[in-house]
Write a structure and sequence with these properties.
single chain, 285 residues, mainly alpha, MetI-like fold
């Protein structure tokens, strides 16, 4: 060949000076924390809320966040908002607990008998798509104007998502784990408690979260329609009352309270349970 390809070797600049490991800056460490990122998102949304409220300049349509906070503080100081929130939470906890217990009973029956499994699948397919608020007129006829009606529709909101997710989680437990439990002589409830529940806990926890969210929004919607229960109203009734009085900042204060309670339950209660169970056991990364 008349010409040969030449390979040109160029010295690497600053060879050997590359960083194999570098300490993160304070901002990088902070941004690596999911809590900091969530707070940043909330602050950004709060700023958008404030700017949009000032841009519309109509407190009857969309009050700024500052006006909403002022109404929130006033209602907290007067004791009205804490009392309404506690009324809602008491009813919610009753319905939520009852729904979880009933879901556990149905799920245990479903994993032990074929008839129980068929019953749970059929009832879930029939009743899970039915909005709980649609049962409120019947609940009022059956249980009257009291907490019983609200608890009934809350049970409906919680029961089916918790039972469905728990049953799906149990069915997804590997045969190997089941055989390990059988080899140790585990039967009945001991087998469920020591083998099935730990292995299926991610699905169970997801069902508990969904059930909580469904119950919370069902309760607020029911109080908006149903109103006062036993002489006391909850957060939904607080929102409805202030809407009639055209106290729109107080309406938004009620909505903000619903949001704050949801954030507290999700990030303090459910996240703590998740860290101490699912993440510690290595079931999720």
């Amino acid at each position: 060949m008349s010409s040969k390809a030449r390979i040109v070797m160029r010295p690497l600049e600053d060879a050997g000076s590359g960083e194999v490991e570098r300490e993160l800056s304070f901002l990088e460490k902070a941004w690596d924390n999911s809590g900091v990122r969530k707070v940043a998102i909330i602050l950004a949304l709060a700023l958008i809320w404030e700017l949009y409220g000032r841009w519309t300049d109509n407190a009857l349509l969309f009050p700024p966040l500052s006006d909403t906070f002022a109404a929130l503080i006033d209602n907290i100081r007067s004791g009205v908002l804490p009392a309404r929130a506690w009324t809602s939470l008491k009813i919610l906890l009753m319905g939520y607990a009852a729904g979880i217990v009933m879901a556990g009973i149905l799920t245990i029956a479903a994993i032990n008998t074929r008839l129980g499994s068929d019953f749970l699948e059929t009832m879930t397919a029939m009743l899970s798509p039915l909005p709980a608020i649609a049962l409120l007129p019947l609940a009022l006829l059956w249980f009257g104007l009291g907490n019983g009606s609200l608890v009934f529709i809350l049970i409906h909101s919680v029961l089916w998502p918790v039972a469905l997710n728990t049953h799906s989680g149990f069915r997804a437990v590997s045969t190997t784990l089941r055989m390990v439990g059988r080899n140790y002589g585990l039967k009945g409830f001991a087998f469920i408690r020591k083998i099935l529940i730990p292995a299926a806990f991610p699905s169970i926890l997801a069902g508990l979260k969904i059930g909580w969210a469904f119950a919370w929004r069902t309760l607020v919607a029911a109080e908006l329609v149903f109103g006062v229960s036993s002489g006391q109203g909850g957060l939904g009734w607080f929102i409805f009352e202030n809407r009639n009085l055209l106290e729109i900042p107080s309406v938004f204060a009620g909505l903000l309270t619903v949001i704050l309670i949801g954030l507290i339950v999700e990030n303090l209660i459910f996240r703590t349970i998740e860290r101490r169970t699912v993440l510690r056991w290595g079931l999720q990364s």
